[in-house]
Design goal:
Length: 156
């Protein structure tokens, strides 16, 4: 009886840790001005085993996409990407001027002091999908983030 219970408990613990755990560092969303319809969310992610970020959702926006900003013929261009690989143990930064989570069709102004709920959609190498919920505080428009690339994000 006791042995059976321990076996069940072990199975339960294994089920609980079957998904890659992604450590989330410093999530934030850029504040918007009243008429602005889109903004960016930024975050640093470190997965304990390889997983792919394949999307995100948020109740504050109609559409959420993963974007990257690339220098294309000396012009900074923003385009959607299907996914962002999170290799095991390696910190991947979503930051102004690079990868970011794009919140489009904003339902209301995003103000400093708010907290934006985000659900990360993750896919394991075997195709298993799961989600991770986080909250990202809103930082002012003028906040430089990493600084140097900030003006490239003004297209938001
Ligand atoms: Cu974007």
């Amino acid at each position: 009886m006791k042995k059976h219970f321990l076996a069940s408990l072990a199975a339960l613990l294994m089920a609980a840790t079957a998904f890659a755990d992604v450590a989330v560092t410093d999530p934030w969303v850029r504040a918007t001005v009243p008429a602005q319809k889109a903004t960016g969310a930024f975050i640093q992610l470190t997965a304990d085993r390889s997983v792919r970020l394949v999307g995100a959702r948020s109740p504050v926006a109609d559409t959420v996409e993963l974007h990257e900003i690339k220098l294309d013929d000396k012009v900074m261009k923003m385009s959607p990407v299907a996914g962002i690989d999170l290799p095991a143990g390696k910190q991947v930064a979503l930051q102004p001027g690079g990868y970011h989570i794009m919140l489009m069709g904003l339902k209301a102004q995003v103000r400093e002091g708010d907290s934006v709920p985000l659900t990360l959609l993750l896919e394991d190498p075997d195709g298993t999908k799961h989600t991770q919920a986080i909250n990202a505080p809103v930082r002012p428009l003028t906040q430089a983030g990493t600084g140097r690339d900030d003006k490239t994000h003004s297209m938001h």
